[in-house]
């Protein structure tokens, strides 16, 4: 089970408790007894925002819980802004409360603007609570920072995963009854009939340290024998530049659970791969074979420093 581990955030002018980050609601966001809410019309840019101070060379974590009240999901995203550079990550929401996590690496000591932001388009009602901010310790950086990697913590949902094909809905759900060696729940990915193209998911950005070796491991099985690719991609949240570091391995799945694992060495500097400077990587689980249909189940997904 994922456990909340908090440290104290730093900075005199913007010092906040890691247990809570009180956001500044921009109209029409409202402060509520539980947290924050917005009944968004679909017009105008608006956000929940907070400035924090970050120290160069440190990793941070922003966490919160969100829920959609209704059937229409406006375009909502987490945005980090420092020294004129933005990083964006879309936020999937459902009608159930789901924990969300986003990581940030500070290249230098500076002020950082943290936002849960809405863009013009669809309208809808969104609720947010339990916003928190903490600096990651060296011990935490060596642990598995993929939230809910065993899928047993229901409140965490599948919100740390995004569809590789951005125009489609997320082909994932958490299910029971798959007889994994521990726990009751697993992650199910649907592979429907399709014409062509990649099909799969990627994680939100995860912290990495340059020059370190990381082990990407997971258990998986499929409704019929099939292949799948696992990948570690370094793509700078603030904007891709130069050569893309993208390590891919192919695995053969069977109808019974099997563990897969491989090591990836992160480049020591950004000379060949400039994106390494952002110290963030994405995990990828995908297939290029449109003939592969059915279901794949995953459990105990881990990405940790060796």
Describe the protein's architecture and organization.
With 306 residues, this protein is mainly β. It is built from one helix and 21 strands. The protein has one helix at 138-141, and strands spanning 24-25, 30-31, 36-40, 46-54, 59-69, 75-82, 85-90, 98-105, 110-119, 124-135, 161-163, 172-176, 185-191, 199-203, 206-207, 213-222, 226-234, 245-253, 258-265, 280-287, 294-305. The longest helix has 4 residues, at 138-141. It starts with 23 loop residues before the first strand and ends with a strand.
Summarize the SSE layout with pairings.
Elements: E1 24-25, E2 30-31, E3 36-40, E4 46-54, E5 59-69, E6 75-82, E7 85-90, E8 98-105, E9 110-119, E10 124-135, H1 138-141, E11 161-163, E12 172-176, E13 185-191, E14 199-203, E15 206-207, E16 213-222, E17 226-234, E18 245-253, E19 258-265, E20 280-287, E21 294-305
Antiparallel strand pairs: 1-4, 2-3, 3-10, 4-9, 5-8, 5-10, 6-7, 6-9, 11-14, 12-13, 13-21, 14-20, 15-20, 16-19, 16-21, 17-18, 17-20
Using brief descriptors, characterize the structure shown.
306 residues, mainly beta, six-stranded antiparallel sheet, 1 helix, 21 strands, 49% strand, globular, disordered N terminus
Q: In percent terms, what proportion of residues is strand? A: over 45%
Radius of gyration: 19 Å
Number of helices: 1
Mean pLDDT: 91
Give the topology string: H per helix, E per strand.
EEEEEEEEEEHEEEEEEEEEEE
Structural class: mainly beta
Uncertain spans: 1-17
What does the largest sheet look like?
Answer: 6 strands, antiparallel
N- to C-terminal distance? 21 Å
- Helix percent band: under 10%
Number of strands: 21
The global form is globular
